[in-house]
Amino acid sequence: MRRFRAPVLPGPGLPVTLEEDSSHHLLRVTGVAPGEAVLLFDGAGQEAEAVLVGADAGRARLTQVGAARAVAVPEVHLLIGVSKHAAMDLLLRMATELGVRRIQPVLTSRCVATGERVDRWERITESAAAQCGRADLPEIAPVRRLDQALAAVPLDLERRVLVPGGPRRAPAVPPCALLVGPEGGLSEAEVQQAVASGFSPEGLGARVLRVDTAVAAALARLL
User: Fold this and answer.
1) Does the pTM of the predicted model rise above 0.70?
2) What integer pLDDT is reported at residue 1 of this predicted model?
């Protein structure tokens, strides 16, 4: 069943009107017909079935069918060095699909890209959530320096930092945090800074991986 973001799930039998972007995708891109059932999710962990009733000024009008249900997501925080647009877009999509709850973009010494593109990043994660079956959206925190990002990690999270050639360990168990550097990786000083903040070095094998590949490989081991 096709999935779309709703601003709210109003309750069984009640109407809901989608925002412009979601309406365009439902009405024009996928061509959902009146009377057809879809799944709506609110981005906060709830989803519900709904039926398309019609459209008003290009915005889809639906009626919720049945009660909303919660979809649980493990608490995994990803701290990621800000990367070039293509790599950043891909890793955000994969992190969403794999169930990351919070994404913290980090500025490190080897970051080539330094801009903050939160609107674009949020559109990517919303699209990925709709595609993969998530009812929530990962929180995307404002870009921070590494020291600020490390200090903001909750104390009860197990912590890992990816280091090429680092020791192989059993996967972390959520709640946990994973730090991955940008293209070019973290400097030795930054790795030591993370270790001093409670992060254990972890490797993914003998090969040096692209940042988006490293994110996918690391998250697939623990989610």
Assistant:
1) yes
2) 87
